[in-house]
Amino acid sequence: MMKRSLEMLLVAALVTGGGGLAFAADPMKEKEATPTIGERITKDAVKGTLMKMDGEFYQIRNTDGELVKVHVDKSTKLDKVVEGDMVKAYVTDKGHVTTLQRVEP
Predict the structure, then answer these.
(1) Strands 77-78 and 97-102: what pairing?
(2) What is the DSSP letter of 96?
(3) What is the pLDDT of residue 2?
(4) Hey, which residues does 102 pair with through a beta bridge?
(5) Which residues face 97 on adjacent strands?
(6) Closest Cα partner for 92 from 52, 37, 45, 35?
């Protein structure tokens, strides 16, 4: 009887809270950067593969195959990204990224 109660408790824990542990353990799943309506309307967007992160300069290979160099700094709203991620960058006319999001391929 005690073993059965313990099994039921374990199942209940997995159903209610244990499943969320897998999502919390992957920091890349969390979206942190959301562009404003103004950014979506007024900024150009570069979508492609993040090829290189070199300090404040990132290189993105866009969907046309061109390598685009953009600037990020502390004012940039930034998802957690690594080289090889598909990204969408909202860029000013001077090449500064206001928001950089990781997107699903």
Answers:
(1) parallel
(2) B
(3) 57
(4) 87
(5) 91
(6) 45
Amino acid at 60: I
pLDDT score, position 1: 57
DSSP string, 16-42: IIIHHHHHHT-GGG-------HHHHHH
Which of 1-5, 11-15, 24-28, 70-74 shows the lowest mean pLDDT across its residues?
24-28
pTM more than 0.90: no
Q: Which residue shows structure tokens 């290979």? A: 61
Locus of tokens 């099994």: 7
Q: Euclidean distance between the first and final Cα of the chain, in Å?
A: 50
Task: Please state whether beta strands 44-54 and 57-62 pair in parallel, antiparallel, or not at all (unpaired).
Answer: antiparallel
Question: Phi first, then psi: what are they for 4, rounded to 5°?
Answer: -65, -40
Tens of pLDDT, residues 13-40: 555 555 444 444 555 566 677 777 776 6
Is the pLDDT assigned to residue 57 strictly greater than 90? Answer: yes
Which H/E stretch holds residue 2? helix 2-13
Residue 21 confidence (pLDDT): 47
